[in-house]
UniProtKB/TrEMBL annotation, chain A:
It is found in: Cell inner membrane; Cell membrane. This is Ferrous iron transport protein B. One of its GO terms (molecular function) is ferrous iron transmembrane transporter activity. GO terms for cellular component: plasma membrane. The keyword Hydrolase does not apply. Keywords: Cell membrane, GTP-binding, Ion transport, Iron, Iron transport, Magnesium, Membrane, Metal-binding, Nucleotide-binding, Transmembrane, Transmembrane helix, Transport. Pfam families: FeoB_C, FeoB_N, Gate. It comes from Spirosoma aureum. InterPro entries: Fe2_transport_prot-B, Fe2_transport_prot_B_C, FeoB_GTPase, G_FEOB_dom, Gate_dom, GTP-bd, P-loop_NTPase, Small_GTP-bd.
TrEMBL record, chain B:
InterPro entries: Fe-transptr_FeoA-like, FeoA, FeoA_core_dom, Transcriptional_repressor_C. Residues 4-74 form the Ferrous iron transporter FeoA-like domain. It comes from the Bacteria. Keywords: Iron. The keyword Iron applies. This is Ferrous iron transport protein A. It comes from Spirosoma aureum. GO terms for molecular function: transition metal ion binding. The lineage of its organism: Bacteria, Pseudomonadati, Bacteroidota, Cytophagia, Cytophagales.
């Protein structure tokens, strides 16, 4: 027998995830729910020696009528006993300081017929507000087990264990539905129950109201339900509104009987005092600006030593391997192909970790929802939503987790626009390209005694990314029409101290998904690229080498080896590719070598710098002391004889990389999140067109 | 006199919810505790005056003015 499934259900900020971490400790994993891409957090919880359960942490919801994609999942599971994650017991975690609203969800889940346990959390917060909840009376009134817990400290877990064991062995369901739809729509419910072989009245109502969103119903069944709605002229929104009001009325009597509230009226909490500053017309934006500055500082300055260390470590390992392994194609593949590729991914971990550490801290403390509030008005002008702020900020590190962060946006159109423009934010993979090319053409000089010219150029590119994201959003807003009304209704949680284990897990998850998602693609491309650069059609590469050696008998060894390597590369498959696309990229100022780098970085931008290194040094083996920058400065333009990397070319490349959609992982993420190939294609085409046109204009203008 | 909505309240002003004029929006608002008869208090506004923050049954709810305008108060 498979282990019993325990689902954690609850309002956002009710303490569900804290409880999840308490129960599962380190025995948890993240995956996807079958058929959907919403993150699935699950773990094992050994209640006693014989009972090992699987705990599933469901997304936080206010009711079982979903408002966003994330929330859809909860009903999809709780309404479908055949679902692999359908719980044997649902623990509904409620915030005791806000029992009234939290009980709405509880009564709905209980009415669906799932065996439930009510976990009363945050009793300490309630006590501070001079509220006392009588758990025994609540249990009697609701007819289900009620357990007092403290999810942060782990108090009450023994009682929770007993309650879960009790529910597993002898399930107690509440006797009578809290809200029985058959009281008002008798025939409709009876008809639905008969046609779909359902036992539960409330589940039958969910079939009627939510059948379009239920993935477990086939087309035929959905049409059948539409027919029932027609037959009884049933108005879903009216009924649903009536249901909510009736539930709240009944809950009000329950709360009145079980909660003693001696809170003095008009008490100003310190959350309200803080909000007065954080939502202040001037201070609010000033503080947000400061926080953003802090984030950027963390990504660029604080992460640098760690990145250097990783870089040095990979280089050292590479050197060690080259020395100790016998020379040959296999060793080359391992060092120049695989290790170089893996190093290109690992080096971004510090930046991603720092960004998500700060974002997690802001979310945990409750500040992020204030940011969404102060930004909503501005974002709305561009067809976005206050909730788009988090994906856009996260996009500075990596678009893949950023796109996944759009799931909390309830309106489909707002979400789609956010997904489409997020990759325009300059992610950390663009940074090495920016730094190398800026170092090439922008002098390192102080201006106004304070700023470094190169730093300003870098900031300019980031701002260009941000503004183009906003403009693209505005353009998409005009193009994408929608009947759906955009909305922004959000609870502002009280300020809390962050839970450090929670923050740590979030950082770990984002780093893991980056390394895994982006890493696989980059590794594969590195290997392919190495093969393409190391082999050519027939013996063309050998011929090129022989010819070069014959024609340059007097050249010094080093210079000859470099020339040979370059000629060999031109004769390789990669060289052929580069020449093939040269006519297309010529107007932008690029030659076939840059063409190879462009093609290879199509998979992921970070490959660009590695490819340039490969192109300009492959085969020489001895390039110590010569950085890519110096190598690029030496490069001559065969036509003019002057330097190849002129400011016009460098800026054209820079601008190209600001806009170009060059990341397979991001396209894959867009495909997963929109469940269609149309949107990743739209994203690819509009961003590449933007990149080409602007790079063309830059080169022609500066030439 | 036209009906007053939550969007017309001043900061610190209290009112009691009467009805809604948008059915789909009302479903979302009802679930968040904005019930007919419930007392609400406009506790603050975002820097540009929109969205606004309301105190409803003991917690703080942020919503856009256009959404607040669908909630009529006495």
């Amino acid at each position: 027998m498979s282990s019993p499934v325990i689902a954690l259900v609850g309002n956002p900020n009710a303490g569900k995830s804290s409880l999840f971490n308490q129960l599962t400790g380190l025995r948890q994993k993240t995956g996807n729910f079958p058929g959907v891409t919403v993150d699935k957090k699950s773990g094992t919880w050994a209640i006693d020696s014989r009972t090992v359960t699987t705990v599933v942490d469901l997304p936080g919801v206010y009711s079982i009528y979903p408002k966003s994609l994330d929330e859809q999942l909860v009903t999809d599971i709780l309404a479908n006993p055949a679902h692999p994650d359908y719980p044997d017991v649902a623990i509904v975690v409620v915030d005791a300081s806000n029992l009234h609203r939290n009980l709405l969800l509880f009564t709905q889940v209980a009415d669906l017929g799932v065996p439930v346990i009510l976990a009363l959390n945050m009793l300490d917060v309630a006590r501070k507000q001079a509220k006392e909840v009588n758990a025994v009376r609540l249990a009697m009134r609701l007819g289900v087990p009620v357990v007092r817990i403290n999810a942060r400290t782990g108090e009450g877990l023994d009682q929770l264990k007993k309650a879960v064991l009790g529910q597993l062995h002898e399930p107690v369901r509440q006797g009578k539905l809290f809200f029985d739809p058959a009281e008002e729509a008798t025939e409709l419910i009876a008809d639905t129950k008969a046609q779909y072989r359902l036992e539960n009245n409330y589940l039958a109502l969910q079939y009627i109201i939510q059948h379009d969103g239920f993935t477990f119903l086939d087309r035929q069944q959905q049409i059948g339900l539409d027919a029932i709605i027609d037959k009884y002229q049933f108005s879903e929104p009216t009924f649903q509104a009536g249901e909510t009001i009736t539930r709240y009325k009944r809950i009000a009597t329950v709360v009145a009987e079980t909660v003693t509230d001696q809170r003095p009226a008009n008490q100003s909490t310190w959350t309200q005092k803080l909000d007065r500053i954080l939502l202040h017309p001037i201070w609010g934006y000033a503080i947000f600006g400061f926080v953003l500055l802090l984030i950027f500082q963390a990504i660029f300055a604080w992460a640098q030593p760690f990145m250097d260390a990783i870089d040095a470590g990979v280089a050292w390992l590479n050197g060690q391997l080259k020395e100790s392994l016998p020379a040959g194609p296999l060793t080359d593949l391992l060092t120049d192909g695989i290790l170089a590729g893996v190093g290109g991914i690992l080096v971004f971990i510090p930046q991603i970790a720092f960004l998500f550490l700060l974002v997690a801290l802001l979310e945990e403390s409750g500040y992020m929802s204030r940011v969404m509030v102060i930004m909503d008005r501005i974002m709305r002008k561009f067809g976005l939503n206050g909730r788009s702020v988090v994906p856009l900020i996260s996009g500075v590190a990596c678009a893949v987790p950023a796109i996944m962060a759009t799931r909390s946006i309830g309106t489909r159109r707002d979400r789609l626009i956010t997904i489409l423009v997020t990759p325009l934010m300059s992610c950390s993979a663009r940074l090495p390209i920016y730094t190398i090319l800026i170092a090439l053409v922008v002098p390192s000089r102080r201006v106004l005694g304070l700023f470094n010219l190169q730093g300003l150029a870098l900031m300019g590119l980031y701002l260009l990314g941000l503004f183009s994201a906003l403009l693209a959003a505005y353009a998409l807003k005009l193009v994408l029409r929608s009947k759906e009304r955009s909305f922004f209704i959000m609870e502002l949680p009280t300020f809390k101290l962050p839970r450090w284990n929670h923050v740590g897990l979030t950082v770990w998850e984002s780093v893991r998904s980056f390394v895994w998602e982006a890493g696989r693609v980059i590794l594969a491309i590195s290997i392919i690229l190495w093969v393409l650069a190391s082999y050519g059609p027939g013996d063309s590469m050998q011929q090129a080498e022989n010819q070069t050696r014959r024609q340059n008998p007097t050249l010094a060894t080093d210079a000859l080896e470099n020339l040979v390597a370059s000629e060999r590369l031109e004769a390789s498959y990669a060289g052929h590719f580069g020449h093939f696309i040269e006519p297309v990229i010529r107007p932008l100022g690029y030659d076939w070598k840059i063409g190879i780098a462009l093609i290879s970085s199509f998979a992921a931008r970070e490959v660009f710098v590695g490819t340039m290194a490969t192109i300009y040094s492959i085969g020489t083996g001895d390039d110590e002391g010569v950085t890519i920058r110096e190598r690029l400065l030496q490069e001559r333009n065969p036509e003019t004889g002057g330097p190849m990397y002129t400011p016009a070319l460098a800026w054209s490349l820079l601008i190209f990389y600001v806009f170009a959609m060059m990341c397979m992982s991001t396209l894959a993420a867009t495909q997963r999140e929109t469940k269609s190939w149309k949107w990743p294609m739209v994203q690819l085409v509009y961003m590449m067109a933007l990149a080409y046109v602007t790079a063309f204009a830059t080169y022609q203008f500066m030439k | 006199m036209s009906k007053r909505s939550v969007a017309d309240l001043k900061i610190g002003e209290r009112a009691t919810i009467q009805s809604f004029d948008n059915q789909l929006m009302s479903l979302k608002l009802l679930e968040m505790g904005c019930l007919p008869g419930a007392e609400i208090c406009l506790s603050g506004k975002a820097p540009l005056g929109d969205p606004i923050c309301l105190n409803v049954s003991g917690y703080c709810l942020a919503m856009r003015k256009s959404e607040a305008a669908t909630i009529f108060v006495d």
